[in-house]
Amino acid sequence: MPLPSLAVQAERLVELGLPELTGIPAAEFRAFAQAQGPDREDVLLAVDPSRAPASALTPLLRRAEKPGFVVVDMTDVDLFTPHGLELPDRALYLVDRPDRGDRLGNWTPEEALPVLTADGRSPLTLTEGIHWLLQQPAALERNLCFMTIGSRLRKDNGTFDARTPALWISGGTGRDGRENRGAPKVGWCWWNNRHTWLGFASTTGRS
Questions:
Q1: Which of 61, 73, 101, 190 pairs as cysteine with 184 (C-beta 3.0–4.6 A)?
Q2: Is 204 exposed, middle or buried (0-12, 13-18, 19+ CB in 10 A)?
Q3: Average pLDDT over residues 67-90
C-alpha cells in the first residue's frame, strides 16, 4: 500500500514530538519534505539513529492504543547499529519502497541477506523499521511481521552478537506481561533461526 505523502509524514513526526526528541526544529522536518516532493508516496521519511535511537522511538508506536515496548532482555537495543550499508550523511533522509519481505518467511537471516542483496535491496535498520510503523501501523500484522537485519551488534572481540532485531506483535506472555498483549514489540531472534511469521524488511535504496 502507498505510504502517506512526505508532507503528512513530516507532520506526523512533528506531532509525535520528534523535534523535541531530536533537537531538529519542526520547520526543518517540513522543509525537508517540501524539498523532496511533499506529495511523494513511495518513500519513507527517517531520522538518523544517532538523533532518534530505537529506545526513544519504540514507545511512540501504537497498536490498538497500546504503546510499543522493547523486550526486557534487550537493554542494549541502541547498540544495534547499521551494518553493511551506508546511511545518508544527514539527520533526515529517505528510505525507498520499504517492503516487509513476506516471501522470505521461515528463512534464517544468514540465508535471507544474500537474496536481498542479489535482488538489489538493502535490509532495513531497526530504526527504519520503527519509522515505517510510525507512519503505517498496518504494515505490522499478526503472523506477518519482520526482522531488521540491517542493524547488528558488534562485540568487543570483533564478532557479531547472534541476536537479530525484529518487530512483531506481543502475545502478552512471559516477561512481556499480559498488559502488553497486542502491543507492537521490539525484540530479537537468533541469526541462524527460522520463523514462519517473520519476513525480512528491506528497501531499494536510501537518499
A1: 61
A2: middle
A3: 96
